[in-house]
Description:
Blueprint: E1 4-9, H1 13-22, E2 28-34, H2 40-50, E3 54-56, H3 59-63, E4 70-73, H4 80-89, E5 93-97, H5 104-116, E6 121-124, H6 131-139, E7 146-154, H7 160-164, H8 180-196, E8 201-208, E9 214-223, E10 226-233, E11 241-246, E12 249-254, E13 262-267, E14 270-275, H9 284-295, H10 299-316
Amino acid sequence: MNTMRIAICGNGKIAHEALFALQHVEGADVVAVCVRPQSIDKGRALCEEYHIGRLYTDYDEMLACADIDFVYVGIVNSMHYEYGMKALLAGKHVIMEKPFTATLQQAEELRQTAISRHLYLFEAVTLFYVDNYAIIKRHLPDIGPVRLVQSNYSQYSSRYDRYLDGEIAPVFDPKQAGGAMGDINVYNLNLVVGLFGMPKEVIRRDNRGFNGVDTSGVALLVYDGFIATCCGAKDSASPGFAIIQGEKGYIHVKGIPSILEEIEVVTPGNSNNYSLPPMPHRMVPEFLEMVRMYHDNDYDAMVRHLDVTLDVMRVLTSPCS
C-alpha cells in the first residue's frame, strides 16, 4: 500500500492534534507543514517536534510539490474555501477541518470541483468514524419510531474572558466565520443530520455577543414525526449528551457528541452499554478510514460523507429567526 503523503496547513491547536494523531495512522505520512510567514518560528517548532522535513510559508510553492497527495486545512474558518479550492485546482486531495466553509455556496463549489476532478474531499468530523456511531445506526430500529432528539455540547471557551474584555479571537469574530454554531454545535448537527438526513425545517435562536457573534444557541430541526434540538455554547458549560427517544426505548450518548465515547441503548426489559476502546487520540479513527477509502478507491463512500457535509452546511447557514 502506497503511503498517503500529507501536508499540514496551520500551526494552532487543531494542527497539533492532527499531527499527534497521524503519528498513529498506518498508511499516512506528514511530509510538510505550511504556516504564515509571521508564524515561521511556530512552524519550525512543529517540524522539529514531529520530525517533518519541510516547512513552507508560501502556500502556492507547497502546492507545486508533486510528492504531496493531500492537504489538511486546519486554519481560520474564513480561509477554508480559498485554501481548499487552491489545493483542488492544483490536483491535491483535501481534508478540511470543521466547519467546512463560511457559506453554503463555497461548500457547493468545493464539492463540484472535487467531483469533477475525481479528487477526495473530506470534512474532519470525528464522530462518523468511531464504532459507536455504527452501533447507534444499527439500534435505531430497536427503539421504535423516533419522537424526540436532544443534544448538547457546551464548553466555556478559554478565550471567552478575553472576548468580554474586547480581545476578539477568530473563533469569536463573525467576519472570520467564528461563532458557537460552527465551532461546537456543528457536532450536534452532524450527529442528527448524519443519522436522519436533511430536516424539513430549521429554526435557529442565538445568544449574540457585543460584536454580533453567536456565543451560544439552539437549532431546532423539524422532521416528519419528530423534532431535534441541538444546543451549543462557548459562553457557558454543561455536561455533554445526546438522547434519541423512540416509542419503544431510547439511545443515550453519555458525554460530548463529538466523540460518542459511551452509549446506552435502552428498550423494554433490556439495557446495553457500549464504550469505545482506548485510542491514542480521538482523530485516529477518522484518519484511518480516510486512508482506507483513498487506498481502496472507495470514492462513493467519500461522496456519501460529502453529501452529509453539504446538508449540515445548509442547516448551519440557515438564518437566525
